[in-house]
Amino acid sequence: MKDALPARTLLDYFDYAAGSGKPNLLCSKVNGEWKNVSAEEFARKVKGFALGLATLGVDRGDRVAILSENRPEWPMTDFATLALGAMSVPIYITYFAPQVEYILKDCEAKVVVVSNAVELRKVLDVRSRCPNLLHVVLIEGELPGVDRISTFDQVVRRGEQMLATDKLAFDERVSTIEPGDFATIIYTSGTTGEPKGAVLSHGNFVSNVMTTSKFFDVTEETIALSFLPLSHVFERMVDYLYFSRRASIAYAESIEKLTDNFQEIRPHVFAAVPRVYEKMLARVQAALETAPSMRRKIFGWATDQGKERLGLLEGGKDVPGFLDLKFKIADKLVFSKIKARLGGRFQMAISGGAPLSKEVAEFFWGADVKIYEGYGLTETSPVLTCNRPGAWKTGTVGKVIPGVTVKIADDGEIIVKGPNIMEGYWKKPEETSKVIDADGWFHTGDIGSFDENGFLTITDRKKEILVNAYGKNIAPAPIEGALKMVKYVASAVLIGDKQKFLSALIVPNFDRLENWAIANGVEWRNKQDLIRHPKCRALFQQMLDIVNGDEPSERRIKAFSLIENDFSIDGGELTPTLKVKRRVIATKYAQEIDTMYATADAVAHED
Prior knowledge:
By secondary structure, this protein is an alpha/beta fold. The protein is 41% helix and 20% strand. The strands form six sheets. It has a nine-stranded mixed sheet, with helices on both faces. Helix 12 packs across helix 13. The longest helix is centred in the middle third of the chain and has 22 residues, at 293-314. The chain is globular.
């Protein structure tokens, strides 16, 4: 693996990638066909858009918001904004107009770049209440008949006209950018309250990219598939890493189209949150259930070989020749088909955003699908620890990266220092002081521990720890993870804060549950009928008994409610990166929760 590209600012990555001469630096689907963006076109549009933004009044220190899905114009807008010494402010396209308004007003954006008519409508609905917003730029679609709106290409042409008369106009602006200059404001998704804008500098990101890029074999020949929102710090940093290596980046159509996009792009690498890997495993398991008996036996044998081999590799031991031979047979019969679903050229994946369950990690690693899990936050640019080639352990988030200091506080909280720590929250000094103490330690809000070899394990969020009515602390994530490994469970959220016992809201995997119902003579007309059926509830109670095992009383789930519809971003229960919003769920399902506890109390009273 070669050394990281020496860089002072993020614009060094732009300059390096733009000078690669690649015909396929970026790629996206346009009108149903994949279209490449060459390095030359990328450079031309970034320079033109930067100077075009300047003609719209964007200057050093100003904010330019980006309301767009992943596409080539996203990094073009980002680099163009940075070239002016301004700050880019990403906004998730899953946000509704009031959330868009909050961010535009809070960051005092001068310009917002929107991808299409749907996102434009959100901005137009709130524009009159955003006094600092001077201009709107539309990437694709027809312009409406209103003032102060231009297309992306119109702004590029304005900049190119300026560059034609002053060939150094772009370079002169870039030369003034320093590592300490602010690069972006990234708003937290607000799982526990009002979104806060983390202010990150060029130096914050560059330190993270330079350190992490040394671990992974990304080259000019690498093709990466980008599908997590670029509005999230994780994908944003990973894309900067791709630019720093001149890798090709293909922007997926959507999460829903991933299966097709993997086959079309055949990527070497991608990054995803745990929920994506969980869904991948669920699809494999679902396909297996309807497979012939012999195929199921072969799959079981193959996974046994993978687990045995994985145990040796994790322990730093050699794999005996006979086991290696059996694994090669298992790979040919089973595991190669899993990798084929990823396009057939898969080399590695990166997981972040939340802890990846050990069971999921072990399955994929056992199948030789390498998923390197890391850990970080928006406020830390983001990586603090990561597994890497030569230093990995499933069930952990890896070792601390060089240059960063991590320690465990007396209450179990992970606290950190390093060059990647944010400057603070935008216009929120009191909130900043709550997370960065007088000695400069950033308090992550996560609970974790190190093992004897320096691998970090995250057990839960400090704010999500459930404290029952008897004052005992319960980390919900491990129990929820165990529930989600049950084949009839799609999603699960633990309830129990200030309660006498734990309960769970469970969304069934209806495809599997319906197959079970047919096999067991259960009659139903709709999902509601099915989840209310006594046999169905008995099935889930049996599964809970297994999950509960011999856990102590406070960690045993003693009541449950089956939910008809899965948690979603549109429903408000999940963040754009698929994290659970516990407060929203507690409010939305208050009636079900009250019924669970009232029924259980009534039964206990009768007993």
